[in-house]
Amino acid sequence: MKKLIFPIVCCFISVTVSAQLIKPKAETQKKQSELDWFNCSFNQDSVYGAEVNKAYDYLKANKKKAKKRPVVALIGTGMDVEHEDLKHAIWINPKEKSNQKDDDKNGFVDDINGWNFIGGKDGQIMEALTREGEREFFRLKDKYADYIFDGKKYYKIVNGKRQEVPAPENIEEYNYYRYKVMPESRIGGAYGGLQLSYVIEEYVEKFDKDMKKRFPGKELTVEDFQSCYDPKAERDSLSEVAFMLTAYYFSIYNTDKWEPVYQNMGKKSVETAKASYEEALKKYGSDNRKEIVGDNPFDINDTHYGNNVLLTSDAATGVMKAGVIAAKRDNGIGSNGIADNAEIMTLRIHPGEGEPYLKDMALAIRYAVNHGADVIVLPEQNSIYPEEQKQWVSEALKEAEKKGALVIVPVWDLSVDMDRDEFFPNRKMNKEGELTNFMVVASSDKNGNPVLNTNYGATTLDIYAPGTDIYSSYMGDTYQKGSGEGMASATLAGVAALVKSYFPKLTGSQIRDILLKSATSRKGVEVEKGIRVDDRPSQDLFLFDDLCISGGIVNAYQAILEAEKVSK
Predict the structure, then answer these.
(1) Residues β-bridged to residue 408
(2) d(CA 200, CA 247)
């Protein structure tokens, strides 16, 4: 999951939806267009909702009856299966009983409402995960972490000194480590900083000797240090970095004297960098999966693990998504779900901190497919997918396509053009051909505009869906307003489930085509959008149709009309 990072320093972005606790009674007195506005339409309510109410008005007027209870698998966080507005919509495994036995022989004991893939047999659960970048750093550390490249030659630190070495044997894998893994790994960044500190120490000593030779007996200053830089001299990238960092430390120490900089940069840089690496290792290096879950997360054939504990500290995110999809309509409490005859299957692979293991994701997709899921909602995309594990997910998605399920994944809020920077999973990741049942969604607001910082892509983002300030169910029979890409994915999943309810023979691939074709068109509308320029946040104006494939926002009413045409 794609963090945009300065070469050595990483920033973390939470995957959970943001929410604000509100008082149910006070909020339910407000207009629907101010609460679960995703049900509304622009013509009637002046908000760019998904026109769900209009779809129901049409279905009722034409005496259409739902023909199926579609199963929506929420792959991500936990769930409160006893919530007052969701109890009717919780999926129940028809072949399993609560008797501490594996009645349906699927390898999971008492998987009544789903499964927790990051739980232990003793009932323990994982509350945090490492990130994929950290896991890849540890996998590749011994191969590549000690290399230092100056643009032409490769070096390693041997006995505290830099020595030239042959280039890595597998340059492609080394470049993957350097340009993909390092920016995503906080530990890798700290380790890279440690290697660089030896180079800094080396050059600071060189600068000191050069200046003392050039200005003998003089108290050296920043002006003297500047003489170490000869713009006509041949330089490498390491000398450039060393000079710039050393120059920067004059301002850090608020001095124009060389000695304080020399004492700290030249004498303490390695010591400081070692401390930073040890701190990163301690903070980000382990999530105790071995002790809690006990499986091998890098063996796809090690499948019998986890537990059935779904009421977890991260369940609030799942509850809010479930409320958008299937909360009971018109019952006087909470919000109106989009498809309240849907059944919510919960498959926990993410505690809200860190990033999911791809093995868990692949097995959760297969579980959903094997248990009849019609719509599968995944956690946010990620920019790092190790090749072997990517194949696990790809094969699971292909199986979902064969079984007719629609798969939905939300983007990250990074303002990245996904046509240029690849995120996974995506439609094109399968070697057998492009997936036809796969949708990528980003969040839009009441005014029909894209959320400023969402990722975008004219050929990689499918559609926008309401995802800001949305009123939904929350923990303990309460309700909240929430925002986030996860809410947008829930809105899209709800509309897909509504279509499946009335047209059960439609496949996931057909429903994707319908949702794209029936979107509320915003083509030709100029909107403001966050972008990245030289890895820095900025803004620009776009035509809406240059941001996504559909050029619009999901529309339930138009989707029902289109589904009728396709089904004739």
Answers:
(1) 377, 439
(2) 12
